[in-house]
Specification:
Strand content: 15-25%
CATH superfamily of the largest domain: Glycogen Phosphorylase B
CATH class of the largest domain: Alpha Beta
Number of domains: 2
Radius of gyration: 22 Å
Distance between the termini: 23 Å
Length: 397
């Protein structure tokens, strides 16, 4: 039985990727601790012991305050990991980005014999360019890329979230051989394919769920709804999310006179999402195109495919890598006219919508958590001498 400590600059209870990995280890008998953001009142969730640093992530546009947020949590996590390891040693410390340098919170355990995994959720250089490059020098991007390479070098094993993501990381100068690819696929125990609901004659509901930064393009979706409702009078959009961008979007709803057909609700625990998704006719993912979003494979798209509703998604490099045109309805990034046309198209052609949802199941059949959980187990076990022998013999067989 392994002892694993995870470090996460996020609220653990709201991070499905980290929860999948941690709870999978607990289910097979490993001990898992997680140092994260959140309420100190929450000390354990589904068998995972939590050590929460109170507070929320900085949501503004000033990189200085974001860095201060990172450093404050880093200091807490560094001391906490060291203290817990000295109390009872961990076999593995796994850092989940962002930021990449969280991996160095494992310095003391690594010096004392623990192994280290770096799970890179996002590309920090590309994200910085997308958010701040117009106001700050290129030297900062080079520095962030250098930190990424040092972080990968420090880890014993590293995880990329999909193939284009791995390609970008190797282009940054990281060795491809050090990586495993573990897609951010939904948990099959939670996101189960449901029988298509019979369309309600007096309602056509769209859904978007997730964070609301400008790059998510939810403002484009609102403008598309304003256009499409001339063809679909009973059109609705349900937005499940919050944080950055919410105030701007609620004002835009008023400006476009959409208050009677757009509903905003706060984020919900992952266990409640499938029922909400299943009530929608179409999922909408209107991301803008930039150097960061081109490397995004939206988790919400994978969840729509898993539950069984069709999706309209902007044409982005990584999405096109995994989804053919017969699996989703594509629209051009930032184009509310094109998005509105796709909404009307699926409304008028229910058989087409049903076919897209059915074809999208090919992704879930090929890439799913039942499969990826075993990939993750093999990665973890390769760092444990006793299990490493078993894993090697199993792979040869």
């Amino acid at each position: 039985m392994a002892r694993v400590c995870m470090v996460l600059f996020n609220d653990y209870s709201w991070d499905p990727r980290v929860r999948r990995e941690a709870e999978a280890l607990v289910e097979r008998g490993d001990t898992v601790h997680c140092i994260c953001l959140g309420s100190k009142k929450l000390t354990c969730l589904e068998g995972v012991r939590l050590f929460c640093f109170p507070g929320k992530k900085y949501q503004g546009a000033n990189p200085f305050w974001l860095l201060m947020d990172y450093l404050q949590f880093f200091c807490y996590a560094f001391l906490k990991v060291a203290f817990l390891h000295l109390k009872k040693p961990y076999d593995i410390v796994q850092a989940h980005t962002m930021p990449d340098f969280l991996v160095f919170t494992a310095l003391i355990p690594k010096l004392l014999g623990a192994r280290v995994i770096l799970d890179i959720h996002d590309l920090m250089p590309e994200l910085y360019v997308a958010k701040f490059s117009s106001r700050h020098g290129k030297w900062i991007v080079k520095f962030i890329t250098w930190v990424e390479r040092r972080s990968v070098a420090f880890a014993d094993k590293t995880i990329a979230v999909h193939k284009p993501h791995l390609d970008a990381l190797t282009e940054h100068g990281n060795p491809a051989a050090k990586f495993s690819v573990l897609l951010n696929v939904p948990d099959h125990r939670i996101f189960k394919r449901q029988r298509p609901a019979r369309r309600q004659p007096d309602k056509f509901r769209l859904i978007y769920h997730g964070t609301l930064p400008q790059r998510a393009g939810v403002d484009v979706a609102l403008r598309a709804v304003a256009r499409a409702r001339t063809e679909i009078p009973h059109l609705e959009l349900h937005v499940v999310g919050g944080g950055e961008g919410l105030e701007h979007l609620t004002q835009l709803v008023q400006d476009l006179n959409l208050a009677n057909c757009v509903e905003f609700t706060p984020p919900v625990p992952v266990e409640k999402l499938p029922a909400i998704i299943a009530r929608a006719d179409v999922g909408v993912i209107p991301y803008l195109s930039d150097v960061f979003t081109q490397y995004v494979l939206p988790t919400k798209l994978l969840e729509y495919a898993a539950v069984g509703i069709p999706a309209i998604v902007t044409r982005l490099r990584t999405v096109e890598w995994y989804f053919d045109a017969d699996m989703v309805a594509y629209c051009e990034p930032g184009n509310d006219i094109d998005l509105a046309a796709q909404i009307v198209r699926l409304y008028r052609n229910p058989d087409l919508a049903l076919g897209l949802a059915s074809n999208a199941a090919r992704f879930t059949d090929t890439f799913n958590w039942a499969q990826h959980r075993q990939i993750y187990f093999r990665l973890v076990d390769s760092l444990l001498p006793a299990r490493g022998v078993f894993a090697n013999s199993e792979s040869k067989g």
